[in-house]
Predict the 3D structure of the following.
Amino acid sequence: MELVYSEERHRQEARELPDRELAVQARAGDMLAFEALVLRKTPAVVSVARRIVGNAEDARDVAQMAFLRVWEQLARYDETYSFNTWLYRIATNLAIDFLRSSRSRQKAHTATLHLVRLREEQTGIETSRAAEDDSASRLFDRIAGRLTGKQKAAFVLREMEDLETSEIAVILSCGESTVRNHLFNARRILRKEIERVAPGLAGRSGKKR
Amino acid sequence: MILSCSEVRDRFDAYGAEALAAGERRAVREHLGSCEACRAEASASDSLFVFARAGATPVLPEETAGILAAVRTGIAFKKAERRLESPPVRRRMGKLFSAAAAVALTLLVPGAPARRSPPDAPPAEREAARRSFVPAGNSAPAPAGEILEKTGGARKYPADATIYDFSTGAGEPRVVWIVDRSIDI
């Protein structure tokens, strides 16, 4: 009974600790601290992974892999850096890898699908569907397929998660200028896609940037 | 930083071009989060503003619990994997320990009965203790692997101990295992 009480108290205390401290405790082998981090960070990790891989089921798989990778690499965690950045770095890289592998698996299938989509566009089916879809998230899922993994990750982290370009550079292991380049290209491609699939939403964005 | 509607609208182009300072950018996003008119104006100016207000995808508590359970299982597997990967090291260590034990026994066995019996035991009892290790007529070493049950005699050693003699021949170091089942580990 005493043990149960102590564990519950430990869990409650863990919930109030900052990420970095929890990570340090987890690194020292405290599983309750690690689980508190998993519970706290799951929504953010799933959200980012969901934007990059494009569906909730794969995003949950990526989140599981990310937390497992975090547990495996805890010994390498340096508490002088933000835990969030470290976690995003692991999760984003896994999501990009996942996207790459699933894209290569679907290559043959996509070639056929592309032909079907072209035919749909010609008959206006696709355009009318897009006009009915007022959800930004669903719109993004539909048009972001043209982006590379890094372009997509950069855009998601910047525009949807509101991270600084310097932080995104650390997450994507590249320079800030490269991040800005990814963002520039992502915006250009996305604008073009919106014009294509949902001209009603495009507004004055026909401007070329 | 708080910006008025016109100040926010003046910054739409700079927002899309990544030309705003962090504070200004945050102020624009916060304003768009609460001002419907500016949101409409922003989307009309640049369709990508639609994503600026796309919040995090909600994750249900059941999903979070499922992910935690999967991570726990994954960690258990990883730990099991690590244990399975370690046997070569353990085997090496085991061999070392076996070798050390063999050496220890080799050194101990010839004099063991005498040494293990109480130092002040009478000569007859000491001889009985020695016989409990060395079966009668074992002047020549026993064949390798022959199992020698404890034959009784003086109870200097537990009755449920079994002695395994792995000696290979005359002149070779004597190797004996003693399995003592009375020890509860």
Q: What stands out?
A: The radius of gyration of chain A is 20 Å. Chain A touches chain B through 46 residues (CB under 8 Å). Chain A is about 80% helix and 0% strand.
